[in-house]
């Protein structure tokens, strides 16, 4: 998941582009269209609940948290209880141990030297269920990250909330609170900017829609390359999914095509969904406003898949490639043409001027296909090949694959999204150099209001904390209070004090919603030394000192403890902050209840297993580990920027995590920093999405004859034609008209789509959505064995 704001921007364009007469004929108002965006938005945030990602989080917890501690703390007990196996202690890192552990020996034997290696040899030789029973850890992991499918009663597609695990439940309620903040009418202090321009809807309807449409991640809803064949090294054996389709092939273009998973399966899913909406809309009574709103939610989910085709694939790069002059020569290899295309385009296109070397490298890699080797126990999704280079992919339009190396970081991108939305709750901010502090902006209004209530509370704890943190920064409390009021000569330093207060008071909020705090924790640098001066080394740390992450986890655990606060309430820090947020008008009562429930789950799980974190602590640790990977990827990319020879590196993995060929991180173009071709992508996604909605609204207001939605979708989801099609016309109009995205009526090719596309009268059986959901659930069952190392 990239920036959810991109889908919101498409909605805002669509809403403004719809002719008023068309809305009226469809018995809709502009306010009703909020349900369209709500469906689109919920499709994205449902990615916070992905059972497949959670399976591998379980394995990681075992490998990195449970087993090392077992080697240290229960070694004697294990040896006493497993004396019959004690001879295995001499195995160490031998081939026998490697066989027993399915390739994880190097990981296991790295913990605690030879003695620990012996214990781990015993552990590795045990049946999985015996190992899993160790200290109640497996039950705790299942409770936190979801019940294994074989232990989930009933229909897996209708599993109860608890079977998604406490982490999933925490996210569910946390996101419900944020959804009310963004969409509910009874939030007094509306958000600013793009989110604030969405017409709010009744809170009870937000609750209803959220309950019905917050589901879980499914690849087809995001046009992601599906992981149905989990081991990418085996995918070439399944061209019906992963090979290019033949639909557009001609004598002139004998090899072009869109990946079959999209061109057949996903397009059919979308077409069946659109046919269902069309028929259901026609069956509604004129006065059934709520029925039309519910169909708009369904349309929003379908439009999300259309938009993501452009955001998540290499189709925009191929569009540029097809138009490049001079074209590929008869004797010119794909590799030579690709290098010439990248070199010539980057020399002439202004988009490459600011960062030419990195952008050339990204463009080159987006037009390649990765090479994988067979997976192992620890890298079951396949291993990026070190022997076979990636290949030019000039005739295959394919979506990015969120592989095991990439999937987990979807949550990190989601957190960044959440951060972006909430940071913009009252002020237009730029990404800061440190903490919540924007360059020239100031703390968000909701933070200032909540902080003021804490400082003014009658119990005095907030003022005492403020005084302590102000003294540590050498700032007077008067200056800090002046900063809260919006003035004062030392505002920037005073705001640092407020961030210090937030760190002590609500550390999980600060960690999840502020990238700079995650970067600080990942770097292990104390707050008053952050950010470090350029080129400086971090201050030395005492050998046995706690890490910054350890200290943050301790702060979070303390923040979950209930205490008597102002007006004799008994609540923990997060419940208090949520109450203040509501009192300040930034949250309604339903949103307050949802967020409070999330932190009740957190407090409950914090006490489940001694020495183990609760849901919030798990997320805090996970966020920092992911931030470390992202920071390492960025550092690697910066090193590559210094080496011209690496621009045309053919390896699938060039050492930078976010540049792996075929990966979501490389190919997705749904953030402001997703250049090159971010503008081209949002233009095409906006035009395609709005066109499908307009065609639908035109259709439901016309005599019933039905449209062939498959043919219509194939006009939008296709390998780009060599000639001038709607894609090139739309991009040209965008640049000609002062960067205004063209409307449906501006593109005659689209306006005529409904006329020749009438479908046969006989309806087809609509099963594709069910089939694709069942495929992903079967994948979950197949991968269940990987939840232990």
Outline the secondary-structure elements.
Elements: H1 4-17, H2 20-25, H3 34-45, H4 51-73, H5 75-81, H6 95-100, H7 105-108, H8 113-125, H9 128-132, H10 137-145, H11 165-183, H12 193-196, H13 203-213, H14 239-242, E1 257-258, H15 260-283, H16 289-312, H17 315-323, H18 334-348, H19 356-366, E2 368-369, E3 372-373, E4 383-384, E5 391-392, E6 396-397, H20 404-407, H21 409-423, H22 445-456, H23 461-473, H24 477-485, H25 491-505, H26 507-513, H27 515-523, H28 548-559, E7 563-564, E8 570-571, H29 573-583, H30 589-606, H31 615-641, H32 664-667, H33 678-700, H34 709-716, H35 726-736, H36 748-751, H37 768-782
Parallel strand pairs: 1-6
Antiparallel strand pairs: 2-5, 3-4, 7-8
Helix pairs in contact: 1-3, 1-33, 3-16, 4-8, 4-10, 10-11, 11-13, 11-30, 15-16, 15-34, 16-33, 18-19, 21-31, 22-23, 23-25, 24-25, 25-26, 26-27, 27-31, 28-31, 29-30, 33-35
Overall description:
Helix 24 crosses helix 25. Residues about 70-120, about 130-135 and about 425-440 have low confidence and may be disordered. This protein is an all-alpha fold. Among the domains are: about 55-130, no CATH class; about 435-510. It is globular and about 80 Å long. The protein has 37 helices and 8 strands. Strand 7 (about 565) and strand 8 (about 570) form a beta hairpin. The longest helix is centred in the last third of the chain and has 27 residues, at about 615-640. The strands form 4 sheets. It has a two-stranded parallel ribbon. It has a two-stranded antiparallel ribbon with strand order 2-5. It has a two-stranded antiparallel ribbon with strand order 3-4. About 55% of the residues lie in helices and about 0% in strands.
